[in-house]
Fold this protein.
Amino acid sequence: MENEIGTDRLGFLLSDVARLFRMAFEREIGTAGLGITPGKHALWHA
């Protein structure tokens, strides 16, 4: 049972860190004035 809790915590941590990196990346794109919207960014990775 403890392994399941540890795995859940690790998954949450990885997801949260990835979200923070995406937010920082979007902020940098916005301040750079490249004209790339979040929608265009999503299509670029698809």
User: Anything to note?
Assistant: Residues 2-45 form one domain. Helices lie at 2-32, 38-45. Residues 6 and 12 are 10 Å apart (CA to CA).
